[in-house]
């Protein structure tokens, strides 16, 4: 890396989605997968996480040891000290670059995923072996744009109600 050149910001989406692309219902998670929640925590700990207002509200409070960047059209939407309010995707990514971040995790919801997908370098997708009813969906991914980098299979057990696979996709370079 040459002197004075800033590192490029890596945008990573992290999501748990069903086979039918459902990611939620009534602003809630729709399955019990503690192993996936642990993976989410380990992956995002110490990083900035980008989300929409509804996702932020569904958590109840900021996640520990992570900095929230919340997108809302409301210029007066309250976020706790140490966290950030922005009004669009570009503003969020500009903030991350200004802070010198190397990576940011986009954690939802559906509209934020849709806006972020074309700008994303990496997808960390928990593919849940279920097709539940829901009212929030992950956008369709073009398989031609992505290559599988890693695949970790988890079987359902007494704590995790469904089989799931955590797949890391990297954007193909042209």
How would you describe this protein?
With 174 residues, this protein is α/β, with parallel strands linked by helices. The protein has a single domain (10-171), classed as Dihydrofolate Reductase, subunit A (3-Layer(aba) Sandwich). The protein is 20% helix and 33% strand. It has four helices and ten strands; from the N terminus they run ββαβαββαβαββββ. The chain has helices at residues 34-44, 53-59, 89-98, 110-116, and strands at residues 10-18, 22-24, 48-52, 67-71, 84-86, 103-108, 122-128, 136-137, 146-154, 164-171. An eight-stranded mixed sheet has the order 5-4-3-6-1-7-10-9, with helices on both faces. The protein has a two-stranded antiparallel ribbon with strand order 2-8. The chain starts with 9 loop residues before the first strand and ends with a strand. The mean pLDDT is 94.
Name the average pLDDT.
Answer: 94
The domain count comes to: 1
Shape: globular
H/E series: EEHEHEEHEHEEEE
Radius of gyration: 16 Å
User: In the CATH classification, which architecture applies?
Assistant: 3-Layer(aba) Sandwich
Number of strands: 10
Which strands sit side by side, in order, in the main sheet?
5-4-3-6-1-7-10-9
Report the β-strand fraction as a percent range: 25-35%
Q: What is the CATH T-level topology?
A: Dihydrofolate Reductase, subunit A
Report low-confidence residues grouped into runs of 5 or more.
none
Question: What's the CATH H-level superfamily name?
Answer: Dihydrofolate Reductase, subunit A
Largest sheet: 8 strands, mixed
Helix content: 10-25%
Structural class: alpha/beta
CATH class: Alpha Beta
Distance between the termini: 22 Å
Total of DSSP H or I helical runs spanning 4+ residues: 4
